[in-house]
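Field guide to reading this record: the first block holds the primary sequence, the second block holds the structure written as discrete tokens, and the final block holds curator observations. Each block starts with its own label. This record concerns Pyruvate-formate lyase-activating enzyme, catalogued under organism Dehalogenimonas alkenigignens.

BLOCK 1 — SEQUENCE
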Amino acid sequence: MQTNVYNIAFAESTKQVYLHFWGCNIKCKGCVCQKVVYDFMLDRNMHLHLAEPRGLAAAPERFMAFNDVIDTLVGLEAKWVLFEGQEASLDPQMPFIAEALHRHLGTTNVLLTNAFVMPDLRHFDKVAVGLKAFNENLHREYTGESNRTILENFPRIFHSGVPMMAETVLIPGYIDYQEIEQIAKFIASVDKNIRYQIDAYFKAGNNPWRRPTADEVDRAVEAASKHLNNVYAYKGSEPREFGVKSIFPTEAELDAAELAPAVESRHLVYA
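BLOCK 2 — STRUCTURE
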């Protein structure tokens, strides 16, 4: 049975797996997959936070079968599995992968989702919802879609009993600290103790925006903290104490892809 899984990244020291699914139901202008398709946490990709985007990354062409995903993760003796991507919940096999991992490995399964559809959470231990914007017009401009369904699904996820958090990308002059505060107010209307993470934007795609400064991130955290008890930030400059390698495709295959010549209008993964 084919899945939408196109990339498995692995942190050996923590036994944490990053399981990437292709396909999405919204089109974020700042989507990281415009810049790099394979896991941004890979050791080989860490420098890309500051790099200027040059063209668009090529879409993946290889995907894993269900049994291959499970066998690979069993072989890695995974303890934590992050279901991410683009949008993992679009894959009909996603709930069955989560169930198999619970059954075979007893993993802690974490789903990263935009909540545009209500996901099957029966075999997930935590959910992180990416809230792009609270203002509907801004959300539609940034993603191409209304956020009404997302804002309806957010409390549904909370009331399902699965521990949850939320995160938003801070984009100076666009999705700024004022919009962050409105998102925080919405989250607080569900529960003030929901963890909220503010991520610094880094340049991806053909956009005019710049990265926020550390002071701008701090200002957004301060604005959100007026309404929430657990607000954190990722500025992109924090040191990392563990390495991350690609298991599928292998590091050698990614090396070969980097060196391959571009064809017509197609860009390299690291273009």
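BLOCK 3 — OBSERVATIONS
The longest strand covers residues 5-11.
Residues 1-124+245-271 form one domain.
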